[in-house]
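By way of example, what follows is a protein record of this kind.
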Amino acid sequence: MMRPFEIAAVLVVTGAPVPAWGADVIVLDPDAHPVPETAVLCTDGGHEMLLTDAEGRVTMSDRCRRVTCLQGSYFPGAAVLEASVVTCRLGMGVNVLLTLDPPGCGEPCYAVLRAVDGDGIGESRELTPDAGSGVLRSRLGPAKPGLYDVLLTGAGWICSSRDNLRQHEEAVHAQWRFPVEVVGVVLDAAGRPMPDVPVRVRESHPQDLVEPGAWRCARDDDALDRFSARDGTFHVTVDPERPAVIEAGSSWDPDGFGTLKIAPPFPPSVVVHLHKQAPS
């Protein structure tokens, strides 16, 4: 990359107008190391965009008053050019390499990084297989350091883990478990099949979600009820490695409410009995 005095010399020889050069901008990473090949964009007084040299330095024209520094692995930084030499500090960013062993999670299969506090990215990227090993990979970020739900989605099923992501480069090895179908029937207090009763599945120990690396799987519409058929039967899908609770009816339904705890290995069929709720 030519330095400003070299460019000026060429312009004088050719008779072209010589620009006036202003402040030197040094781009630093969060650990105060110079970052080469970083874009520095003038945001006030001009529109030039230059790349930093091997020392992380670039010289802007004297018209430029503010700059933004941009590098794909970090959050952008900004600086006001109020001295002959200024620094533009890039922000800390977390970059996640998510891997998943074959056969993966069906096609298409997406990785999602979602901030638990809602103040962050919720990007989704497709997993692609490595040509040599067949391991599926996806890169997510940069994201702000913090607590995230890392999710895999495919064919109406989600497997997820909650992780505290703090390092600039984070590696997450995902787990995927295909669903198991549980067949059941809803019976009233007299033992008669009950049609059109809402049925849902919830986890038996949802507090496990806060444990780093604890993966769990569920339908991506698990909050929605399914309803028993005319003969009282129903079909639900569950995580094959985690206990679950099947709920039928509701506490305000005159037909009653019933729950059934199940754990792997799951029985081939289950029965959920409804019980009348005592008046409050």
In short: The two ends are 80 Å apart (CA to CA). The first helix runs from residue 4 to 14. Residues 180-273 form a domain with the Immunoglobulin-like fold (CATH 2.60.40.1120).
